[in-house]
Specification:
With 368 residues, the protein is an alpha/beta fold. It folds into two domains: 186 residues, 3-Layer(aba) Sandwich (Rossmann fold), CATH 3.40.50; 166 residues, 3-Layer(aba) Sandwich (Rossmann fold). Helices cover 43% and strands 20% of the residues. The protein contains 13 helices and 15 strands. The protein has a seven-stranded parallel beta sheet with strand order 3-2-1-6-7-8-9, sandwiched between helices. Strand 6, helix 3 and strand 7 form a beta-alpha-beta unit. The protein is elongated. The two termini are 12 Å apart.
């Protein structure tokens, strides 16, 4: 099949939608299908070697209450017409929610059209979108032949924005890339490492982990907290760490995707204290694929997807005490920590490896 995968967000930026589209591309390409990634103009040159077509003009916009962004992309109608004439796609798969360029593609598409809903936005934005925008796009939405969502919570949000029947197929993960057997970072092998990976903004909840670590490091002298990521609250969090004289906290900043797996492989415990607006938690899959036990807050997205996978280490949201209790169990019990990590790795391979997830998406395509 000739398959077009469309992403509105800046392809060059790190993000869950970008990871999803790359993983799906690689799976479909491996299976012998002719895959093209369609995207608006990115900031800077795209160095990716995949088959990518940039089209139209672009103005980046932020979604309220989330670190995700969407670009206000648009193209000349002639350009869009030519795209479908030249490539004759069998499937057009759009990452949703999408903007003007996505609707332009949907309107002109001669393919079977699929949308995957991947993120949530602030509830306060929904009434505005539904009241002002939905009547204008209703006819175009009728051109969708299939609707996917990465979790039940994503499905619930999607139904408000894009009504219809949805099939839930989760995110996939490259279990060869994220693997406990890859080369560890030598400098981090002298202590027990708790790892955080994510954007440093309010909803990712790092302040709760820092407070928990303050308690834990007073009791356990062999700990190190590794913080990967950057964002608007970075300065405030660093000031808190300095003011409270937190021991062995490393703010590592942005780490390129190609090196990220080594940080997971070098850690002993992964903690994701995100408090809200999570539909799935791809970063948790990166941790479980790397053979790590996970402690996370019971936000709606994590609770919905990972209840079975994490076996009780989804803890009370915004509770420092709950984080301390769960993390301490793993700190004190090496055998239990390692056994939990092995179980997480096994379940991730069975349920979330791209071989399993991609096959389900491919079957969905064929059914259309």
């Amino acid at each position: 099949m000739k398959i077009a995968l469309f992403i509105d967000a800046d392809y060059n930026k790190p993000g869950g939608v970008q990871e999803y589209i790359r993983g799906l591309y690689d799976y479909l390409n491996k299976k012998g299908h002719k895959v093209t990634i369609l995207t608006g103009k990115s900031k800077g040159k795209i160095k990716d070697k995949r088959n990518i077509i940039e089209t139209g003009k672009s103005l980046p916009l932020k979604y309220p209450g989330t670190s995700a962004s969407i670009a206000l992309n648009w193209a000349d109608q002639e350009e869009v017409d030519q795209l479908f004439t030249n490539h004759n796609f069998d499937i057009l798969h759009l990452m949703a929610p999408f903007g003007l360029l996505g609707f332009q593609l949907l309107e002109k598409s001669t393919a079977k059209n699929v949308a995957t809903y991947l993120i949530t936005v602030e509830k306060s934005l929904h009434p505005l979108v539904l009241k002002k925008i939905h009547p204008l796009i209703k006819n175009r939405l009728e051109k969708l032949h299939g609707r996917l969502a990465v979790s039940d919570i994503a499905k619930d949000y999607a139904r408000e924005m894009f009504p219809g029947k949805y099939t839930v197929i989760p995110l996939g993960i490259d279990t060869k890339r994220f693997n406990p057997k890859i080369k560890k970072i030598k400098a981090f092998q002298d202590r027990l490492n708790i790892l955080f990976v994510g954007r440093l903004d309010k909803r990712k909840g790092l302040k709760y982990l820092l407070r928990a670590y303050k308690e834990l490091s007073n009791t356990h002298q062999n700990l190190r907290l590794l913080i990967v990521g950057s964002g608007p609250t970075e300065k405030k969090l660093k000031n808190y760490s300095k003011k409270n004289k937190l021991k062995i906290v490393r703010f590592l900043g942005f780490i390129p995707d190609a090196q990220l797996n080594r940080y997971f492989a070098s850690a002993d415990i992964f903690c994701s204290p995100a408090t809200e607006n999570e539909t799935f938690g791809g970063v948790i899959l990166e941790a479980t694929a790397s053979g790590l036990p996970v402690v996370a807050f019971a936000n709606q997205g994590y609770k919905n997807v990972f209840g079975e996978l994490l076996k009780g280490f989804i803890v009370k949201n915004k509770s420092v005490d709950a984080l301390v209790t769960a993390l301490e169990i793993f700190i004190k019990n090496k055998n239990f920590r390692q056994e939990t990590g092995r179980n997480n790795r096994k379940l991730t391979e069975e349920l979330f490896a791209w071989e399993a997830v991609g096959e389900r998406i491919l079957t969905f395509y064929k059914s259309l």
